[in-house]
Write a structure and sequence with these properties.
Helix content: over 70%
Radius of gyration: 25 Å
Number of helices: 21
Number of domains: 1
Strand order of the largest sheet: 1-2
Shape: globular
Strand content: under 5%
Number of strands: 2
Amino acid sequence: MFGIPNITSFEVVALWVILAIAFVALLYALLLRNQIMREDKGAKEMQSVWDGIRVGANTYLRKQLRSILPLIVVLAVVLFLSIYFIPPSSAALLRFKGMTDAEISLIVGIGRALAFVMGAVFSLLVGQLGMRMAVQGSVRVAAASKKGLNYALKLAYRDGTITGMLTNGLGLLGCMVIFMIFGIDSPDVLLGFGLGGTLLALFMRVGGGIYTKAADVGADLVGKVEVGVPEDDPRNAAVVADLVGDNVGDCAGMAADIFESYEVTIVAALILGVALYFTTHQIEWVIFPLLVRGIGVISSIIGTYLVGVGKEKNAMNSINRGFYVSAVISVIGFALVALFYMQEWRAFFSVSAGILLALAINEITKYFTDTRYRPVKDIASASKTGAATLILRGLVVGYEATVWQILAIAGAILAAVLIYWGQGFTFTLYGVAMTGIGMLTLTGNYLGMDSFGPISDNANGLGEMSNMDKESRQSLADLDAVGNTTKAITKGVAIGSAVIAAVALFGSFLTSIALVQQQMGVVSSDTILATGINIASPIIFVGLLIGGAIPWLFSALMINAVAKAAGLMVEEVRRQFKIPGLMEGKVKPDYEKPVAISTIAAQRELITLATFVILTPVVTGLVLGEGALGGFLVGAILSSQLLAVFMATSGGAWDNSKKTIEDGIYGGKGSESHKASVVGDTVGDPLKDTAGPALNPMIKVINMIALIIAPIIIRVSTSNPIAILVGIACVVAIVLAVMYSVRGGFRRTKAGEANF
């Protein structure tokens, strides 16, 4: 049954239960949505501001969808054709026994293309629906603050949990549907599902990140530093664009980011599980990751529903309590599955190592970005001597945090080595993949924490713009400060999970090449799994260097896009502050023009950056070979992790140091210390919310592309004329994309609109 040989009745029932759990997650999301939508939206003045945010966010997402649809169609066709360049895998021959190679290729090709579309659609749904509910929730959280901190906290967190449950439900649903249809051959098809989700995450991260920081930088530099108005002041023309950006960047972007990590880790685990099946003839290695996913959904539902402040009135402690409850339930569930199903403890230890890694990254990120700890306090203290010393302190914090996080990740990978000591390389890689599965077990909690940030940020902004009472404003400000920390924590987890997922995919890359080599007659002792990748080889070392450089160029292009758009935003906000009567509140600013500036800035970079990311591994593989492509992946993974953690941590620490000063220390708002902290926060904004987070989907797109093209490359000589022509065409496309991104700029039309 399900195309799986020797499957037991228990396993059949378990698979149906996991499928049912996917629908339970979606039903829980619907239940939470209905709870949120029944809440009051507050006064008319607040609803008027909120409606502008809602319209702006929806308009942006519609334009983004129109930009990326053509590329999705093209790539679906390419993925269908990719199956025809290689003979059917051993798993495909086993699943479709009795069919010809042509028939198998047709079925798997159609499956991979449809799975790609499904992954893209599901990722889009998670981002769009999650963001729309965040927008709906923010105005209700603002109104709920009149009922106290506890009520507003519960509402904001449950609203954010909707995104987490959509991720759990749709991610698990897609995997189970594919697994039930294709069985032992599901990894061939899941590659399409993973790439679809990953590519959409890249689009939403890139577009949302550029949008939000173009608005935020322009609003802060002019509003806070030059004019001296408060944050979210309704006289600031960029304030609505800024609040829209919180949603399209932090809600839609992060949701799609975590969703594709959720997909990619299961893809890697199943590929390696199938490889172990052909070695051990035990299907448990394939089914165990799916059981873990189901347990994680149930534990997240229980933990997220328990969030609410107790007697201590500490929102962060309440959120942490819900997270730890989910973690404990998950570990107990994993132990039961390991004891009664796997009948061995190695897989349990691997998954538990993932949860411990997530907890470690939580604590590391919290320490370096939370206002209660020394790093943020030191940065705030440095503001007394100006922006330069404050920025230097933030750089130190980012560098130091990067070291601790990479040591935590190294420890988790080392744990996989020790757990499967002496069992072989494939077992170790499987352990790494299960660490990634464990790390994302509590996806519902992570996305609840992440979406809580922009929801509380928007609610705080709405409270300020509608002149709510002082007590309600303080509750919203407290939630906003906690939201900054939860966003930083989930960014850390997203980066860590991206690295673990990329390492697992790298293992799948090696396994895939080895299987193809064996099909071509290479003996096991000479396959890439046995020989490894020799970085002493000059060609492979060149691939390593190129891969290490890619994240830096990618980040440069993104920050450059923000800088150009922010420059235009500054000009626009300055122009509007000079409008007679604006400062006195007699005239309202034109909020639509800053929204248009951010929208154009985000849209123009989508296809160029996607082209750059997709084609670089193709060129490396075609020109330098599969060994150099492996080196390329190693360089990209390491460089991305170091750079992403540094940017996310420094930016988060600068942001929260500004918050501490705004709470009254060192002169409070309007002081020289405050102005210095605003400069630091402005520098950190594109690092923590644009370039840093976008590296997560970037490294997974690169790994997924490499995994798909590796079986083709190994059969194509680097001296093949067609390969050379394709390589040259890809190089030209990459150069043109980079030149367009670097040199392209904005200009004003005669009507004063932003254009390019």
